[in-house]
Write a structure and sequence with these properties.
13 helices; 427 residues; six-stranded mixed beta sheet; Purple Acid Phosphatase, chain A, domain 2; 2 domains
């Protein structure tokens, strides 16, 4: 064990969840989707990571798990990664990796010989690598199994005196929405080790869990779908005289996903909708800072144009797609119509009329999965054929739940009401 006082200034990069060459799911179904850009985004983001490491002359790079997305389609994925690491090797930059749950499922990556500057930590027990020139030590452990249920942090070694201690771990901590509960541990488990910095992976949204000492999820390097929206990148850490002095977020994504919510409450005429949407999309494009932008457009608000919107949603969606295409570097992934009426059904239709009775019946209709299957038997057959991973999608017709069925019923009611209003009230 080395015991010496770290002096001077040096930096390192903390990244995680690169999911290199992660396969596309469903995007090819959109005729106007930038498929090539989305497919190559994880590679270009990794290239940006390497460029940042070289420009900042960092001492090393930490990759906190899920470098890959399971087994590769072929060896080109591994060869691309090896070439990028070779650039860092020629600059004297070391790379330290722990395998996460997706990496543990990749047999091909285990057999690939990496450049000498790459160190993958053991999955059998925690390992420690001392860096004598920096008076620092990195502690890490990889996953042995894809579904890692053990508290790996508990077995990490205690603080090494006189060194900057850094922990490298792929974990869900005490749990995060949307992420499986792998290698669970508490923040207290981490703080008890006395390390200066914990470089965590597994959670795809960047999060600074603690600052004294630092416990950080870097988030994933590149968003791959709308549930990974917002800026993505790495964390650049600066150490001065043995203490972490700065922790900086560095966006490196090349394609950004965003949800653009447009409130149409002030739109009293239908001819003002396009201009309102256009300005909102321009604002999103500006925030993307030159990146290609994939946008989910959500139209909200109690508005006078609600019936006109719902009466022809397909036509409106195509108009908005054309508007986005004209702005450049912007693609509409989906358009969601979530506006509402300013007036209720009772104010629109007199009581005790056929239309009022129809709307009342729809509102009182109770649907659950069995009822819906009885009405549309083909749905049950379709759901039985869906792969497990489809549960992550947000199409209410594919994955049935009470919440989604109620949402579907409300949408049907609003669509019916909009069509009736278009044909004339009380007609």
């Amino acid at each position: 064990m080395i015991a010496q006082q770290s002096t001077g200034r040096w930096q390192f990069i903390h990244a995680a969840d690169i999911h290199l060459d992660s396969p596309l799911r469903g995007v090819e179904g959109y005729p106007d989707a930038p498929v090539a850009e989305i497919r190559g985004a994880t590679r270009r983001a990794l290239e940006r990571l390497v460029e940042l490491a070289l420009a900042e002359r960092v001492a090393f790079v930490l990759l906190a798990g899920d470098l890959f997305d399971g087994d590769w389609k072929d060896y080109h994925t591994g060869l691309f990664f090896a070439r990028q690491m070779g650039q860092l090797a020629r600059a004297g930059i070391r790379v330290f990796i722990v395998a996460g749950n997706h990496d543990a499922a990749s047999r091909m990556s285990h057999a690939m010989p990496w450049p000498e500057n790459v160190r993958v930590f053991s999955s059998q027990q925690p390992e420690s690598v001392a860096l004598e020139g920096l008076a620092a030590v990195i502690h890490g452990r990889s996953y042995q199994n894809q579904a890692e249920a053990e508290n790996l942090a508990r077995d990490f070694p205690p603080y090494w005196p006189g060194l900057v201690n850094i922990g490298l771990l792929h974990t869900s901590l005490t749990g995060r929405p949307g992420h499986a509960d792998y290698a669970p541990c508490s923040v207290g488990d981490l703080l008890a080790k006395g390390y200066a910095y914990w470089a965590l992976g597994h959670v795809h949204r960047r999060e600074v869990v603690a600052t004294d000492p630092w416990v950080v999820f870097a988030g994933n390097l590149q968003g791959r779908h709308i549930r990974e929206e917002g800026a993505k990148g790495v964390t650049l850490v600066t150490v001065v005289d043995g203490r972490v002095s700065e922790v900086q977020e560095c966006p490196l994504d090349v394609l950004r996903w965003a949800t653009c919510r447009v409130d149409l409450s002030d739109c009293d005429r239908v001819d003002t909708v396009a201009a309102t949407v256009r300005q909102a999309l321009l604002n999103e494009r500006e925030r993307a800072a030159g990146r290609t932008l994939a946008v989910r457009l959500q139209l909200t608000g109690a508005t006078a144009v609600h019936p006109q919107l719902l009466a022809r949603t397909a036509q409106w969606a195509e108009e908005f797609r054309g508007l986005a295409a004209g702005l450049g570097e912007l693609w509409l992934e989906k358009v969601q119509f979530q506006t509402s009426r300013r007036l209720g059904p009772a104010e629109l239709f007199p009581a005790d009329t056929p239309l009022a009775d129809l709307l009342a019946s729809l509102q009182q209709l109770e649907l659950d999965g069995n009822t819906l299957f009885a009405l549309v038997p083909e749905l049950q057959l379709l759901q039985g054929k869906l792969p497990p991973e489809i549960e992550s999608v947000d199409d209410p017709l594919l994955v049935l739940s009470a919440e989604k069925i109620n949402q579907l019923r409300a949408e049907v009611g609003e669509l019916l009401l909009a069509r009736l209003l278009q044909q004339g009230r009380g007609a």
